[in-house]
Amino acid sequence: MKIALFPGSFDPITIAHLDIVKRAMPLFDKVVIGIGLNSTKPTFLSPEKRQEIVHAVFNGDPKVEIKTYEGLTVNFCNQIGAQYMIRGIRSVADFEYERAIAQINAAMKPEIETIFILSKPEYSAISSTIVRDILRNKGDVTPFVPKEAMKFL
Question: Is 41 designated active site?
């Protein structure tokens, strides 16, 4: 079984995340959306709320599993049996950052392959950081998040 992990904070999930997952799904038997819990990073939504939103977005799709995790992402891949890690790339800066992480991950766990999926141009400016800023300032995030997420925000 080909299992891929799509890790991130998903604070909140965006339409760009959704697009990456939908485009990855035909490549794998299962895609695990791993909601990373990083104690040093301040969050907008609780881990429980993020998990609830992601569950609502994927509405029981049998190929998608949602889990939270702490610690090294490559160790979580081993825990769930994922041989692949999916990363979305929006820009050259994303590529440089993700390349460095992928190379370190490969040095630690060479059996886990990182797969980069380029963001579609219309999604390349969308990030959870920007969406959080809009939310904090009482703006409308409707164009940037899946419609299923709106009732939680």
Answer: yes
Token output for 144: 């940037």
The model carries a pTM of 0.95
Beta carbons of 63 and 37 less than 8 angstroms apart: no
Catalytic, out of 39, 41, 136, 138? 41
Note the pLDDT of residue 38. 81
Helices (H), the chain: 15-24, 47-58, 73-80, 92-108, 128-136
In 10 A of CB 47, how many CB atoms? 17
Tens digits of residue pLDDT in 52-71? 999 999 998 999 999 999 99
Q: Decide if 17 is catalytic.
A: yes
Task: Name the active-site residue from 90, 119, 127, 132.
Answer: 90
